[in-house]
Amino acid sequence: MRFSTEDTIVAIATPPGRGGIGVVRLSGPDAHPLACALIGRERPLAPRHATFATIRLKDGDPTGPADAIDHAVVTLFPAPHSYTGDDVVEISAHGSPVVLHAIVAAAMAAGARHAEPGEFTLRAFLNGRIDLMQAEAVADLIDAVTPLQARAAFDQLDGTLTRAIAEIDASLFDVVARLEASVDFPEEGYHFVDPGAVSGELDGVLEKTEALLRDARRGRMVRDGLLVVIVGEPNVGKSSLFNALVGSARAIVTDVPGTTRDLVSELVDLQGLRVTLVDTAGLRAVRDVVEAEGVARARQSAGVADLVLRVEDLSQPRADSMDLPSSSVGKVLCVANKADLPAAWRAPGVVEVSAATGAGLDALRNGIAAALDADLQRDRPSITNVRHVALVERAHAALLRARTAVSANASLSEEFVLADLADARAALEEISGRRTSDDLLTHIFARFCVGK
Amino acid sequence: MSRGEFDVIVIGAGHAGCEAAYAAARLGVRVGLCTLSTDTVAQMPCNPAVGGTAKGHLVREIDALGGLMGRAIDATGIQFKLLNRSRGPAVWSPRAQADKRAYGRWMRDALDREPNVEWLIGKAGRILAANGRITGLALEDGDSYACRSIVVTTGTFLNGLIHIGLEQLPAGRHGEPPSRDLAESLKAIGFEWGRLKTGTPPRLARESIDFARHVAEGRFQLERGDATPVPFSFLSNPIEREQIDCWLIHTNDRVRDIVRANVDRSPLFNGQISGIGPRYCPSLEDKIIRFPDRERHQIFLEPEGVSAREIYVNGFSMSLPRDVQTDLVHALPGLEDAVLLRPGYAVEYDFVQPTELTRRLETKRVAGLFLAGQINGTSGYEEAAAQGLIAGVNAAHRAGAGPGLELGRDEAYIGILVDDLITKGCLEPYRMFTSRAEHRLLLRIDNADMRLTPRGRAAGLVDDQRWEGFEARHARFARNLVVLDETIVKSPAGDSIPASHLLRQPETRLADLIAAGQLPQFALDRLQPSLDVASAETAVKYAGYLKRQESEIERARRDERRRIPRDFPFERVPGLSREVVHRLRQVQPDTLGQALRIPGVTPAAVAVLGAYVGRLAPGVRA
Q1: How many CB atoms lie within 10 A of CB B610?
Q2: Which end of chain A is more exposed for a tag (fewer CB within 10 A), N or C?
Q3: Backbone phi, psi, residue B527, to 5°
Q4: Residues of B in contact with A2 (CB under 8 A)
Q5: What are the backbone dihedrals phi and psi of residue B266, each rounded to the nearest 5 degrees, phi first?
């Protein structure tokens, strides 16, 4: 990683492959003249104006005439009001990889350097356009698969979490200042703060860090996705239900019990949640070695699922003792399939669906989302980054120590409370990037793809 | 004309100058101590006291390193108090009232006994340097002396200007002429300068105040010292001399009204003073005008010596005209007839931005030129003395003696003091506070010797007597920890548990266990037994806290270990803003850790810098 903002970098900013439009982004002191050369323009570009232009590239002989290869819209964002804080030019051409690569190659021939992964965002950070937390959010936003994920990442980019941390730090700062004053000015006849007030204020701060940590679980689910495992006895229609939720005939469905022998999984968007849905072998005592292995895997995956869908057959009498596995980490939702046939039983809390007709599928999707408790609210900052969660946990633990230290029976004086509060603040500052080290930066920025 | 030759010349014999001269002399170099008069050695022009929160720590550290201040105040203190006694051992801070004259005499005698120190009576005029190195000092009268290094400790004398109401007197201290030639000579070197202000209260005649009556009638509140004084020095015997009383009174509405009515005659408020004063030591005008909500302010009446005539009116510093000062004193309860011996005043003086200095307090512009004390923007006798010691050791090193001495933020308040000065510069007079220490729980008065005496020994400051005492104490400390683990005692609940377990309970005190005869193996020093108790008790009782701070230090050291070479070409690091490059070139941080502490230098900038340190060699184009 080069910590440099002195040269001009270039890269394709849109995903690889063919598309309607492809964007090449230039950033750095020569971005503007380089772009003008590429479109054969002699007058400077108007800032933040979409300019229609023809890209002309020289083929082979640099002294020969330039050939028009594509029409494009070119926009200049002068420093410092650009994404990176440098002069930035975005060239929107047609999305042919050949054309886009030719533009990048021409820019490089004219002196630009190919951007390294995440380098546009690194520059934005180095130029003070975004803080560390926002830089990390950019990576999440681009990696987002579902709208909910994108929204959580956008909230972070937007600074919701930055503000929440700043607010916590501000309330701590006030307590710290008063405690410091008590220690450094013991003879001033001032009563700076009393222990009761400190406990009260720490309780207030602890509530905030607790709320952040509560939301962190939700945030992790949104960011990393969830594991939902379908289990049940053979022939209750697990694979049909799986296909219905996936929206395609992904799993083989027959009337023969034990058709599914291995795990079948597919990534689906369920109410905005990124869910890995897993179909499993029907649970029954078997002699067949392959099927037995399938049953073992079914039990195993159910054990680590965020949610287990326990599927039963509504058209058959309900089995009394079902030896069905449940999740050791998540919850269990009971589903009765084949609701299109006459019902042989009914029970409260069981979602009735028909994989064959699609009846009840929406209710099931809602049920899954509700069970996963992932109704993200926009104004609530959620921590979606493992590093952030660990640091908030560290801050929270330090705050708890401080809270214990001020309690009457610990009888520890201000400097101990202050030591704990300093730990808490150090952890919070590490999130907002005020205490970062270059190793940390390298790690974070290595996650980026070129051209973001 | 040339009069002779020294290794080190120290200009000024105040608190910084005395420590500098003594430290250099201990290293075996010949020291010329230049002062206007040997009657004003180690003078206390402001309050007659040494120590206080964090300042007491500094004195303790000076002593642990082999300096003078701790022994001087133990020998001449007249009222001792351990501040923050109700809190934990990390913030216990000793403070003592001094007998001003006795203190100065003790210091002069101590320097007189040093064969390597010679008094140079006169007024320093010109710094002599050639090729960026010190060559000598010329006095104002024309005499000159060759030397290899100079320590400048001029206090408030550089272009000093005293304000009393609308009167202005060029003076370094009350009744003493300011240094102008020396100021010019230093300015010619090209340092960045600033102007600060400090002040002092009026002095009253002791015989004009009937203390006993006002105490009896409730106007004065008696302020007594501790029954058993805690000495500053690790070498001192128990202090058994009789202690004096001080008195506490408060300002009232009349004081407030008089100040308000005369504020236009205060040079602080009429634009006459441009220098910046300390916010932590506000003048009376500041207290009344800037804090109108506060009903009353504390005033301490403190004798300047056992038999001194002057009473120091602590908390009443001001620069109002003499007649207003008299009215204000008379407005205080019980002081209606008090006689004003000397008015309070404000003094403005020049200082050098300490970002001009290295960690050794040597100027970056001239090799062999060291600055210490108020000339670096600090206030306080203790801050001055601490810098004097560091500058003295390193000036001797420049003259060929000893390895020099640099202290880190994690090992001493002195290290914090120097690092703050050279990294941040001064916007107001700098005073030490315990809150400036990131690892406060580890920087205690009871372990100052364990932190620093080995450093002082390596630097050549610690003599055999102190070293033997230290080794014995260190061994005792280690043994006592084992004793606490191995001795089984009865808990209040009746269980038999190791003493160290019992000690972790908040209500259990080590001193009580010893007094109850539960720890016969616990070894105590004959002179200062309380030290052994404090160190062992802290190590056991607060082990969790100490461990956490130690691991934080380890984390911080990663950045401190990343060295930035001298003359590193910051301007060639791509991506740094012009402002950041300017700050970096000005401070020339020696580690990435220090760079992070420079105001205006962002962590992102330091990350970039870290990527280039080691890749850009000084003077080599990348």
Answers
A1: 21
A2: N
A3: -80, -50
A4: 611
A5: -90, 120
pLDDT bucket at A448, cuts 50 / 70 / 90: very low
Cβ contact B545–A416 (<8 Å): yes
Which residues, 6+ apart, have CB-to-CB distance to B609 below 8 Å?
B564, B570, B573, B576, B584, B592, B595
| A4–B575 CB contact, under 8 Å | yes
Q: Which of A126, A188, A410 sits opposite B575 (nearest CB)?
A: A126
**DSSP of A99-128, one letter per residue?**
HHHHHHHHHHHTT-EEPPTTHHHHHHHHTT
What is the rounded average pLDDT for all residues in chain A? 78
- Under an 8 A CB cutoff, do B88 and A128 touch? no
Q: Residue A332, SS3?
A: strand
Our measurement of the distance from residue A259's CA atom to the centroid of its chain's CA atoms, rounded to an integer in Å, reads 36
Its sign, for the CA torsion A163, A167, A168, A174, is: positive
pLDDT of residue A55: 85
H helices present in A225-343, as ranges:
238-246, 289-304
| Alpha-carbon span B141 to B144, nearest angstrom | 9
Q: In terms of Cα–Cα distance, which of B419, B449, B451 is closest to B432?
A: B419
- Partner-chain contact A5 B91, CB within 8 Å: no
- Using the structure block, give the residue that is written with the tokens 């002082």: B456
Q: What is the mean pLDDT of residues B189-196?
A: 95
Residues facing A277 on adjacent strands: A228, A266
Rounded to whole angstroms, the Cα distance separating B143 from B151 reads: 18
- Segment A59-104, tens digit of pLDDT: 655 555 667 778 889 999 998 888 888 899 999 988 777 788 888 8
* pTM of the entire predicted model: 0.79
Q: Which amino acid belongs to residue B110?
A: A
DSSP B122: S
Structural Rg of chain A based on CA atoms: 29
Across the interface, of B91, B298, B606, the residue whose CB is closest to A415 is: B91
C-alpha distance from residue B206 to each of A212, A225, B99, B317, B570 (Å): 63, 81, 15, 18, 60
Tokens of B514: 């010893």
Does residue A158 have a pLDDT over 70?
no
B252 interfaces chain A, CB cutoff of 8 Å: no
| Inter-chain residue contact A183 with B87, CB threshold 8 Å | yes
Q: Confidence class of residue A445 from pLDDT cuts 50, 70 and 90?
A: very low
Distance CA B352, CA B508 (A): 51
Three-state DSSP state, B181: helix
Chain A partners of B438 at a C-beta cutoff of 8 Å? 422
Residue A240 three-state SS: helix
Q: What is the ipTM of this complex?
A: 0.86
Distances (CA, A) of B93 to B75, B447, B607: 18, 13, 38
Q: Which contiguous run of DSSP H or E holds residue A203? A: helix A195-224
Dmax over CA atoms of chain A, in Å, equals: 88
Closest CA to A415 of B321, B387, B568, B91: B91
Report the pLDDT averaged over residues B418-444: 92
- Number of C-beta neighbours around residue A378 at 10 A: 9
Task: Count CA within 13 A, CB hemisphere, residue B320.
Answer: 24
Q: Which positions in chain B touch A438 (Cβ < 8 Å)?
A: 606-607, 610-611
How far, in Å, CA of A177 to CA of A194, rounded? 13
Helix (H) or strand (E) holding A226: strand A226-232
Directed axis angle between helix A361-372 and helix A238-246, to 10°? 80
* Substitution target from A184, A185, A193, A442 for chain B, most B beta carbons within 10 A: A184
B558 to chain A, any CB pair closer than 8 A? The answer is yes
Does residue A434 sit at the B interface (CB-CB below 8 Å)?
yes
Rounded to 10 degrees, what is the CA torsion of B561, B566, B571, B576?
20
Any residues with CB less than 8 A from the CB of B502 and at least 6 apart, and which? B489, B491, B508, B513
